[in-house]
Design goal:
The longest helix has 26 residues. The radius of gyration is 20 Å and the shape is globular. A hairpin with a 2-residue loop joins β8 and β9. α3 packs across α6. The protein is 29% helix and 20% strand. With 347 residues, the protein is of the alpha+beta class. The structure holds 2-oxoglutaric acid and fe (ii) ion (FE2). GO terms for molecular function: metal ion binding; oxidoreductase activity, acting on paired donors, with incorporation or reduction of molecular oxygen. InterPro entries: DIOX_N (IPR026992), IPNS-like_FE2OG_OXY (IPR044861), IPNS-like_sf (IPR027443), Oxoglu/Fe-dep_dioxygenase_dom (IPR005123), Plant_2OG-oxidoreductases (IPR050295). This is Fe2OG dioxygenase domain-containing protein.
């Protein structure tokens, strides 16, 4: 990958401290097409994970709600997921505390020019690329033996412990979610999980969006669909900013206290033969407050082939996607050239 024209030691957080005019590189929209940060709120179904696991009538109703929400907007708000409010606060805090450190200390975790992992800002792949108004910490958390621990913050002191615990808890949740996704389509419970394999990968990304002088001209994160199988997004507790595209219209995703936003990624769209949708979303900025979100991307090990479940291919619904190996590799390659991998995967 050709990197980087801009140094990672030029974070948006620093830029924001002394910035009255938005630098040219961050202008996403010209003023004739300003970004509306105040789109209407979308009603995203809230799913009770605990009741999904029971074998009662309430589980059937919840599965039906799950299927309906994933086929219409591609996401749901998970509650009763087994993590307490104070634990989720700790996950947010390790991110916020890290970004508050002096630059010198943050640079201990800085990503290498050719790497995605570590602390940095939007990687630059071309001179004409419009940059996102965000800094991030991006770390592979699973499998454990592939972690690059030298890039994990030593400060705050509990960073590693909390991120490890969060990873373990999300593994459990992800298993329950993948089973529920299969069951909601009347497939064998293990159908998606079998494709997913034992050595699944998880990557955590702490997204830090400093206040921005012109939220109408720039984006925290450009529109994209996730290349994962599933993404778990812990939103900021107080500051909204996530928007989702539905029927060609942008909507604001509301904050549901203590819920995790569960998002279908491209790989589950493929496995479900397009029944579940991987939603296009973006993050907007605001002029007053820092926003922090924590996204955890779960995906099958890159050596595995993923494909639409055979049971979902019928005469009326023919196979819509090719078999894909290393979807994520293709995703990043395409992303940097502004191309969509899911479109390329379509037959
Ligand atoms: O900050 C957000 O709410 C969105 C994050 C996101 O979409 C991502 O990290 O892929
Ligand atoms: Fe995303």
């Amino acid at each position: 990958m050709a990197e980087t024209l801009q140094s990672v030691s030029n974070p948006v957080q620093e830029l924001a401290l002394d910035c009255e005019t938005l630098p040219e590189r961050y202008i996403y929209k010209r003023s004739d097409e300003a970004i509306d940060v105040d789109y209407p709120t979308i009603d995203i179904p809230v799913i009770d994970i605990n009741s999904l696991k029971s074998s009662s009538l309430s589980a059937e109703k919840e599965l039906e709600k799950l299927r309906a929400s994933l086929s219409s907007c591609g996401c749901f708000q998970a509650i009763n997921h087994g993590m307490t409010s104070s634990f989720l606060d700790q996950v947010r805090s390790i991110g916020r505390d890290f970004f508050q450190l002096p630059m010198k200390e943050k640079l201990n975790c800085v990503r290498a020019a050719e790497d995605m992992e570590g602390y940095g800002n939007d990687p630059v792949f071309s001179e004409h690329q419009v940059l996102d108004w965000t800094d991030r910490v991006y770390l592979l958390t699973s499998p454990a033996d592939q972690r690059k621990l030298h890039l994990w913050p030593q400060n705050p002191e509990n960073f590693r412990e909390i991120l490890e615990e969060y990873t373990e808890r999300l593994k459990f949740l992800n298993e329950a979610v993948l089973k529920a996704l299969s069951s909601s389509l009347n497939l064998k419970e293990s159908c998606f999980l079998d494709q997913y394999g034992e050595n699944a990968n998880m990557v955590a990304r702490f997204n830090y969006y400093p206040p921005c002088p012109r939220p109408d001209l720039t984006l925290g994160l450009k529109p994209h669909a996730d290349g994962s199988a599933i993404t778990y997004l812990l939103q900021d507790k107080e500051v909204e900013g996530l928007q989702i595209l539905k029927n060609d219209q942008w909507f604001t995703v509301p904050i549901v206290p203590d819920a995790l936003l569960v998002n279908v990624g491209d790989q589950v769209e493929i496995m479900s033969n397009g029944i579940f949708k991987s939603p296009v979303h973006r993050a907007v900025t605001n002029a007053e407050r820092v926003r922090l979100s924590v996204a955890v991307f779960c995906f099958p090990d890159s050596g595995r082939e993923i494909e639409p479940a055979a049971e979902l291919i019928t005469e009326t619904r023919p196979v819509l996607y090719k078999k894909m190996k290393d979807y994520l590799g293709a995703y990043f390659e395409n992303y940097h050239h502004g191309k969509s991998t899911i479109e390329a995967a379509k037959i």
